Predict the structure.
Amino acid sequence: MIESLLIANRGEIACRIIRTARALGVRTIAVHSDADAGALHVREADQAVAIGGARPADSYLIGDRIIAAARETGAQAIHPGYGFLSENADFAQAVIDAGLIWVGPRPASIRAMGLKDAAKARMIAAGVPVTPGYLGDDQGEARLRAEADAIGYPVLIKAVAGGGGKGMRRVDAAADFAEALASCRREAASAFGDDKVLIEKYILSPRHIEVQVFGDTHGHVVHLFERDCSLQRRHQKVIEEAPAPGMDAATREAVCAAAVRAAQAVDYVGAGTIEFIADASEGLRADRIWFMEMNTRLQVEHPVTEMITGQDLVEWQLRVASGEALPCAQDELAITGHAIEARLYAEDPARGFLPSIGRLDAFDLGSAARVDTGVEQGATITPFYDPMIAKVIAHGATREEARETLADTLDAAIVWPLRSNAGFLVEALDHPAFVAGTLDTGLIAREGEALLPPPLPSEEVLADAAAALAGAQPLAGFRLNAAPRSMATLAVGGERVAVDFTASVRAEPVGRLLVTEGGQTWEVTPWRAAGAAQGGAGDGAILSPMPGRIIAVDVAAGDTVSKGQRLVTLEAMKMEHSLVAPFDGVVAELSATPEGQVTEGALLVRIEAPGGEG
């Protein structure tokens, strides 16, 4: 067994790897950027090494510094986690060339599956069904448009080197193709340094089914069954589960066997995931499930597989990297119960899921579900990395039992003062289609605002809050006529709310308190006269919703614009965000400049309505 392990990652996956390594008696070394000097994974590791600035490009993406840290600390092996350099074949080879153990697949396997077009060609040769599409070298716009026209709309443009939902655009009509292609290429070049794309048929009733595979250096490859990751927003997974709802034994056998063939075709070693897209218009059928891509690393959603199989996949990784055979043969693996995972993010669903950045003053997820996290109360969510707070995973004897446990856990989640998507996750888990297991990847996009939680607490919760703030306590058994009533005016969620509450026994009043309902946390205080409101889109001021970089300015001062017209494109948290005109008017002020760095709340554009009414 490996004796010392450097983890070339951060956050919850670094903490997750440390947990298993500690149980196996393996010494762990963390690396960290300047922004992560006080992070949880740094404190949990046996040793830590600083590797550079806050931006990933200045720290976690510099392979030479990570290898140097491994040598400096005497680490035997490097575990890449997921993201960053985890699927970088050149880095994997550099680790091996440095005489270190790479806890991952062979570099040749990473390369074979890293480019989607070459991977699909290899899968066709291995007898693995693939989605109809164009994988050619001719990347001219005319050729790509012609191929899309031949396939038939809708189509999906995908970055060949992409992943994580980036570099993907759905195109519903030929007229939209050129703009979508340009946007996809720009995002792909920024995220992956490669703007090459492929075209696929877009499946109208899609389910995202993936199979966990594992190989060792002794020629064994097994699968650990499937996961369903169909609940997605903008191609980013939101809720994952295992096994897939509605998957019968025959279909499972066919899909998992295809996944094993795919892994064997690239001589795979370690943990990997074969991703399939299913046309679920007639349920899950083996003849309507096609290979999409392979992720040559551990997946974010691996805990649901661990929960239904009773296996520790990080332990498997370390044992395989140490040269051991797989811990289990295929016939020793079985499914027990059902598991569902939700990704809890510091983001505001009411503001288009913009990241919420700052200090996490209150954070509590209870103890009913498994929580994989890299933060704790008092930590800071920075603009430099993915804003994930935690993965919350529930297991039950049945799918409904797991769903209820997860929903209850998220319903009571306390996250403050940052906004989170916990309320949105509760709404999604309670949606009839999810409850019935008839979801598809378009569910969130179709439902839209219906999945947004209420903006304010219920009247009952506000009444209890008003009583606490006033120092009133309920008088048990008081039945004479009616309990005395009082009125209070509260400030909650930036709103002024009048509340009627029961006033009985007096106690010491509370000046402020936090209330939680439906996964949302609010601060409630007595109403006081508010100061001047900050400018916002309502008065024509377009403010930066978060720190970021301006990548495009589409207007000039004095231009006439229409409501909904794109004004500025901001790149932040590894995604593009378009800021649009709130009404018809004229660009009265323009502060945004291409490539300019902006802070949260900075004025970018001010629109003046006709007649000078901003």
